[in-house]
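Batch job 17 of 40 flagged for manual review because the log was empty.
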Amino acid sequence: MSRQARVVVPNVPLHITQRGNRKENIFLDDEDKEYYMKSFMFYKKKNRVKLYAWCIMDNHVHFILEPKTKKSLSKLFGALNTKYVKYFNKKYQMCGRLFGDRFFSCLLDEDHLYEGIRYVELNPWRAKMESEIGEYQWSSSLERLNKRTKFFLSKLPKYLNISNWLDYLK
């Protein structure tokens, strides 16, 4: 039986998640996360995808993305996952599959874009990986709170006009 086609609408944001195979860790140290995000940023730019939020946990990732074309996301994640799996397997002398199923995606309308960003950026806090919002290094909340500019977020659509993101995140 063939799998259901992914619904991608150009210029409409999506919440993307991807887990490790059998929910196992796909990042074992900060070097892995750094490599993944640098690779992500390269393929994001190459495939013309806007980045609104992201979070890397040990066994999964979250992104809020807006693709320019119907194929932007599949090209981005196809290339990214291939590159990262090769890196990971070589570094840890492993072989085989690292990610579980293909990435999950869910279209976000205007109302749910707020909530999607909030959900992604509060993930480490809910998992008790930080005691204060904005401490966790591997989330876009640091950019949102102007604590870092390393991974550049796309400008939010004009209808998302939040004056104080820290108050919003709480």
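Reviewer: the log was empty due to a logging misconfiguration, but the result itself is present. The mean pLDDT is 89. Unflagging and moving on to job 18.
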